[in-house]
Write a structure and sequence with these properties.
Blueprint: E1 2-8, H1 15-23, E2 31-37, E3 54-59, H2 64-75, E4 81-85, E5 89-91, H3 95-105, E6 109-120, E7 125-132, E8 135-137, E9 143-145, E10 160-161, E11 169-173, H4 174-178, H5 194-204, E12 208-219, H6 232-248, H7 254-267
Parallel strand pairs: 1-2, 1-4, 2-3, 6-12
Antiparallel strand pairs: 4-11, 5-12, 6-7, 6-11, 8-9, 10-12
Helix pairs in contact: 6-7
Length: 269
């Protein structure tokens, strides 16, 4: 059985298209849990409340990590697989089927990530660019989405293990995630870098993380991919979490994280 968890926060521009893509899957989810984390006006979710297989849970703004944990605690005991996806993810028709096949054929894989392609929600069309093909770390310590803003032109077409999977779409084996229960995502992160932290912890437990190019979808990325368009507050939170991540995992890249935080605070870059 497959459960889906979606965390929303003022996601009214995305959620209808997201849900439609779930309904169009060649392999159906048995349960879709939508956890709203403090939307200003959550009434945009009301029309899903009576939808078969769907359930809506309203919370204060508890953050991405805590909201996903809430959903996981509801579903983990009842499903073999769970997909945690953002409301700005729009699936291709066979996304779930392809991800399930990868997990079924690779017993040591804990999480599958896919080929996230860019989507412009304002123009309602693909950008023609990639958004993520897995998360990697540069030689000096910066974590980044591989392929982001590169042309979607037949690149990155090989299945491979990756250091981390983008939290916008994580298709997981419940048995792997259960090893991190009761707090799969570290709630001290609130949001940003909690996906990398989870991936590092699973790898330490011996689980593999797999990028599958056939697991395709669009990502309308609710925050700006261009750093110049990201708010100062968001930059501060993300850079603080980079310090938290490196401290937690005792990484020598802490120096990079501290430098990044100081640059954000002093120069607002």
């Amino acid at each position: 059985m497959l459960s889906v968890i979606i965390v929303t926060h003022n996601s009214e521009r995305f959620i209808d298209r997201c849900v439609a893509s779930i309904d169009d899957q060649s392999v159906s989810a048995s349960r879709v849990v939508i956890v709203d984390s403090g939307s200003a006006n959550p009434s945009y979710l009301d029309h899903f409340s009576g939808k078969k297989g769907y359930e809506i849970h309203h919370k204060q703004n508890i953050g991405f990590a805590a909201a996903n944990n809430f959903g996981l605690n509801l579903t983990a005991a009842h499903c073999e697989y769970v997909c945690m996806m953002n409301p700005d993810i729009f699936l291709e028709a066979e996304t779930f089927e392809s991800a399930l096949a990868l997990l079924s054929n690779n017993s040591q894989v804990g999480i599958v990530g896919g080929r996230l392609k860019g989507f412009d929600i304002d123009l309602s069309r693909p950008t023609g660019l990639l958004d993520s093909t897995g998360i990697f770390r540069s030689w000096y310590g910066r974590w980044y989405d591989r392929g982001q803003r590169e042309k979607n032109a037949g690149n990155f077409q090989v299945q491979e293990e990756v250091p981390a999977v983008c939290g916008a779409f994580m298709f997981g084996r419940t048995a792997a995630l259960m090893e991190a229960m009761p707090m799969v995502f570290d709630e001290s992160f609130f949001m940003y870098k909690e996906d990398i932290d989870l991936c590092l912890r699973l790898r330490k437990k011996g689980w593999k993380l797999l990028y599958g190019p056939e697991v395709e979808m669009y990502h309308a990325r609710g925050w700006a991919a261009d750093r110049n368009e990201i708010s100062y507050e968001t930059k501060c939170l993300a850079s603080k979490n980079e310090i938290r991540l490196n401290l937690k995992h005792r990484s020598p890249y802490l120096i990079w994280a501290l430098g990044k935080y100081l640059a954000v605070r002093l120069f607002r870059i």
